[in-house]
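Sat 14:20. Reprocessing the chain from the morning session after the first attempt stalled halfway. Input below, unchanged.
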Amino acid sequence: MELLSLPGEILHLILVQAALCRGLKRTLRLRLVCKTFDKAIYYPALFESRLLDHEHLRRRHCRGPVYTCNTHDHGVAKLWHDYLVYRAMSERDTQVGRFVEIRQLGQTLVDEAQAQRPGPEWDLRHVVDVLCWSALESGTKAPGGPYENWKREEATDLGKLQGFPAPMPRLSLLAAAALFDMVPLATALLAEGHSPKHHNNLLPPAIQVAAQSGNISVLKLFLGHPSYGSGFDPYAVYGAAVRGDMEIMKLVFPAPNGIEGTNESGYGSINWRSDASKAIPKARRVTLSPEVYEYLSNAWAPGPRSGRTPWYADLVSHAGRGNVGMVKYLIDERGVPVDEKNSEELESALERACRCGQDEVVDLLLERGADPDFTGHALWGAVPIRMAASGGHMSIVRKLIDHGAGLEAHSGGGPGCGLGIDAIHWAFLLEHTEMVDLLLERGATIRAGASLATTVSHLGYESMLDIVRQHGFEADPATYGLPIRWIEWPENTRLKAEWFRRKREGEVM
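Finished this time. Tokens:
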């Protein structure tokens, strides 16, 4: 009997157990079976397995969030959003993450809204759906943020929550009111003493939500409230930059005396140690509007620092986000070089684009003359082809090879790459048979084969072990007991626990 011909309930149970046994990576690959399988069967089984709850625990030291605004993320944000909605609507244990808190916030919002202006749009699931998109802004600074990263004792506000006890549902409600443009509710919450500049690590601060949503009426309410004060607010500027709206940007960050193009803000000179000097670069790196970018650049124009120009750092950020228009603007209009050696940025623009799987940006950078073997940091060997291979980005690996990229290991290591790991080793570690075949066909060799064989044997990758054996290598656990030593590797935690279990039981020396 074919698997897909089984009754849906039985197939669902099989998939849930398969996911729990084989892990998230292999479960995600099941989406490729067919569209019907993806929509009707795959998501319910994946979500019920709860694997995504703990995924960030294996990857919490990765160098970027799963989701940020204005990022071409290949559907990652949609997956996390759908899962967050599922968990918020189904979870009943208040000690598990903050899923119940999201649903309770949505219910409070629905009750308040129905009392003010009844309508069909105030359906609980719809409200939770909208809230979850906003929650992703603050919740996924580490993958899986809707779970451990939101534990209340770890809640932070610009490094440390400013003396506020957690939880504070009314503070989160203020941000929700800003999201749904509910001025009367926001006014009442302000009267209770809640500040639009603070947050509880569930939703972004209310003032950011208002600026990012373009709800000018509630934004003006916040700007005119005594709790706002007269200082620069980084959250409001960030929200306006995400939206890319000059009207809102000038509202939250007015030019001094109505004159643009100076290094002064309406609040006096911007000190390089101030909140403004930290917030403006972040805002520049998230906006998709060249006009907003120029406005922010004119407000604060720092010089090079430690060999790094701020414009190149912006290029690297937009390259990783997949913002082709901004990458083109920075190179063609701003004159930012495609390759720039520096002492702070660990990646070049091409490396970042390769790591994040941004095909269009890779095409653009190579077209503009980017060196496929260039590494942005003198001490690291995070060359583009290894970054692309470590992310499983087959099309980018092929493009880099076609542009002359070297296939063997470069000196040093790289963020998320591991010391001395060739591109072909990453293909083995990802069980990417097609990439292994391509690299071997183009001339790559398997070095440190015994170590690689031991690693794939530990991981249970039988098909990969067969290929390594075909090239004359066998696993050698006595010599290579625990060959994976880099913390960024998602399987590291499970592998380490398994290895120590085997050592205790005398299976390895």
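The first strand starts at residue 264 and ends at 265.
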